[in-house]
Amino acid sequence: MSLVSNLFLLFVAVSVLVYYIVPHKFQWLVLLCFSYIYYLAGGVRYVGFILFSTLVTWGIALAVEKAEAGGSHKSARNFLVLGLILNFGMLGVIKYTNFMIENLNALFHMNLRGMEILLPLGISFYTFQSSGYLLDVYWKRCDAERNPVKYALFVSFFPQILQGPIGRYSRLAHQLYEPHKFEGKNITRGFERILWGFFKKMILADWAAVFVDAIFDNPDQYSGLAIFGVLFYTVQLYADFSGGMDVVIGIASMFGIELDENFKRPFFSISITDFWHRWHITLGTWMKDYVFYPVTLSKWMGKFGKWGKKVFGKKIGRTLPICLANLIVFFVVGVWHGAAWKYIVYGMYNGIIIAFSGLMAEHYRNWKKKFNITGKENWYHVFMIIRTFILVNISWFFDRADTVGQAFHMMKLSVTKFAPSQLLLIPAGKEGTAFTPYALAILAVGCIILFIVSVLQERGMKIRESLAGLSLPITVAIYFCLLASIGFFGSTAVARGFIYAQF
Questions:
Q1: Among residues 169, 122, 167, which one has the least CA distance to residue 141?
Q2: pLDDT recorded at residue 491
Q3: Are 343 and 337 in contact (CB under 8 A)?
Q4: Terminus-to-terminus CA distance in the chain, angstroms?
Q5: How far apart are CA 316 and CA 314, in angstroms?
Q6: CB of 252 within 8 A of CB of 160?
Q7: φ and ψ at 376, to 5 degrees?
């Protein structure tokens, strides 16, 4: 059931209606029922996987808490390790078995058969969410949930299950379980957010995808468009993922539930580190809290730091453990994105840049002093944004290309060949190339609107609060224009599922 389908909108409307009709004490049960109905609609066979993850982390979290209460820290740690192995083991077997088989065949000239495994919907997201809960119980950041049915809702809440955001139990659970009175402003704010998400998805992402698919699927045929391919992919990926988040957060708002923001205008970033503080924020914070800090504070990392100080001196020795931890984090990020070497290269590319920046931080500061750069100059800020944008777009080659080799091939084409006129040879919509100029115009106007809104938000303007202050006729006119543009222009492109719903 696609998030942009009429059936899904009807599903949401019915769920919201039932949620506010039933007695308040049953509201969380309504959410649970509709969450499992939504998941069942994707395939009955998938339910076993989410039930397994739910029951494993619920039961082991209780065992961890009981062991800690009894003073047996070792037993608690053993239970934790068992839970993580079972949880991530299931994810690993399902998502990476065929990848391992392919590499074994290539390395040892074997002829092992791959397994026909269908990837359950949202498995990466609910695995990370439930594992984060298990670790939080172990570190005493939250109490273990006694009610398995309530915990099942935390794992399966239907707006977020396919593509996040990755929720924290301490922030999300009480919102799911506590009663909510009907408030018109929640419905209005939710509708506004959903509408904006649809605009980004159907006007920008789906139209950009037409050109992205054509260029990346036929790089030699459109050899002069490699640079356009990655720029269009930037539009597609951001509009698709952030648009999906808008829809998800908007739906949750209608229930009176506030989900974590997952994007903060990432293309205004001034470094790769800053970019990951603004892009897929909940994944970044998850990696920071559950991978980066545990690795950095581990005993073996402490020994590595001492070795680094002896060999390279105190300054570099202090930085090396952080650099290594960042490399580990982004290796995990790459693996999380998919079972292919291109994703690992994508992750390591980001990790290497961040690690190198850490090692060179003092040199950067000295160079800035030498050239009398304070960092507050407007031109320098713009330079940093453009530099980061270029570095990010290079990483997208690995993310979107079919293979690492194709990614490098398209990088080469992007600096050796340039033929923008080839864009007009790409068929767009039902009318083929005859509609291509209009498709490009739609994309251009959509990007301008998105850019203006982003600039206003970056400057501190709260768009929806400003809309609320407008007169009713003007507000209605804005809603109508958005709806009309989605209905008229969005229907022309081929409808596509959300990219991150595949994870």
A1: 169
A2: 59
A3: yes
A4: 16
A5: 6
A6: yes
A7: -95, -5
- What whole-number percentage of the chain has pLDDT above 90? 64
Confidence band, pLDDT 50/70/90 cuts, at residue 190: very high
Q: Could you give the residue numbers annotated as active site?
A: 337
Mean pLDDT of the chain: 90
Number of other CB atoms surrounding residue 142 within 10 Å: 16
d(CA 15, CA 9): 10
The reported pTM is 0.92
Closest C-alpha among 359, 383, 388 to residue 373:
383
Q: Determine the 3-state secondary structure of 371 from DSSP.
A: coil
Please give the full DSSP string across 448-500, using - where no structure is assigned.
Answer: HHHHHHHHHHHTT--HHHHHHTS-HHHHHHHHHHHHHHHHHHTTTSPP---GG
On the CB side of 464, CA atoms within 13 Å amount to 14
Residue 493 buriedness (CB in 10 A; 0-12 / 13-18 / 19+):
buried
| Per-residue b or e along 217-232, where b marks 16 or more CB atoms closer than 10 Å to that residue's CB | eebeebbbbbbbbbbb
8-state DSSP, 392: H
pLDDT at position 319 over 60: yes
Q: What are 4's two structure tokens?
A: 């942009």
Taking Cα atoms as reference points, which of 69, 24, 402 lies closest to residue 177?
A: 24
| Residue 263 β-bridge partners | 279
The answer for residues whose C-beta is within 8 angstroms of residue 177's C-beta and 6 or more apart is 28, 150, 153
Q: Are 64 and 146 in contact (CB under 8 A)?
A: no
Number of other CB atoms surrounding residue 23 within 10 Å: 7
Tell me, rounded to whole angstroms, the distance of Cα 36 from its chain centroid: 22
User: How many CA atoms within 13 Å lie on the side-chain side of 298?
Assistant: 14
Cα 126 from Cα 154, distance rounded (Å)? 9
